[in-house]
Amino acid sequence: MSTPTPVTALARRWRLEVNMGTEATPDWQLCPAVTEFQWEAPPNLEDSGTYDDDGWDGNTKTGQGWSVTTTFNRKASADSTAYNPVHEKIRAVAFGWGAASEIPIRWMDRNGLPEAYEGSALVEWAPSGGNKNDLDQVEVTFTGNGVLQQITNPLAA
Predict the structure, then answer these.
(1) pLDDT in tens, the chain (157 residues)
(2) CA 57 to chain CA mean position, Å
(3) Radius of gyration, CA atoms only, the chain
(4) CA dist 2 → 6, 8, 35, 129, 142 (Å)
(5) For residues 104 and 118, is the Cβ–Cβ distance under 8 A?
(6) Is 144 exposed, middle or buried (0-12, 13-18, 19+ CB in 10 A)?
(7) Which residues pair with 28 in a beta bridge?
């Protein structure tokens, strides 16, 4: 029996979804037309070294944050009278205050591999602009507000 040759995962494996429903009745919908996707969850490390450590650093993890940065092409209806509803919800939340400034998101490996996450985030909306031949793109930063949960990938077989 031969050993399978490993294949490197591609960056485009990520699928981003937004809860268009409520917490009680979630309605997870695809954020379409993503062209870039990057997430991170850096820990907050504090120096806990002492004189007794013979000069070696000591560190303690005291917290953790997370964020997702994505770029997508704006999508409009065929008659150009409405934008994609997921894009519009993200844009509206970016201009909200208090509870209206947070949006539940989740992302997962679109091939069904186990990596998948969910959390509530604040939104920064930054249209790219550009010249007459550029696509209408928006860069969105989702800054986590609370726990980033590892979830079972909904696309897993």
Answers:
(1) 667 767 777 778 999 999 999 999 999 999 999 999 999 999 999 999 999 988 899 999 999 999 999 999 998 888 889 999 999 999 999 999 999 999 999 999 999 999 999 999 999 999 987 787 777 899 999 999 999 999 999 999 6
(2) 33
(3) 20
(4) 12, 19, 37, 52, 44
(5) yes
(6) buried
(7) 19
The answer to whether the CB of 139 falls within 8 A of the CB of 70 is yes
pTM for the full predicted model: 0.88
Burial tier of 47 (Cβ tally within 10 Å: 0-12, 13-18, 19+): exposed
Please state, in angstroms and rounded to a whole number, the distance separating the CA atoms of residues 98 and 6: 46
Tokens of 57: 């650093």
Task: Judge contact between 139 and 126, C-beta under 8 A.
Answer: yes
Name the residue with tokens 């409009």. 76
Q: Token digits for 44? A: 């907050």
C-alpha distances in angstroms, 154 versus 108, 114, 116, 128, 132?
A: 8, 9, 8, 32, 40
Q: Residue 100 is inside which H or E element, if any?
A: none
Q: Could you give the 3-state DSSP secondary structure of residue 12?
A: helix
Q: How many Å apart are CA 136 and CA 72, to the nearest integer? A: 9
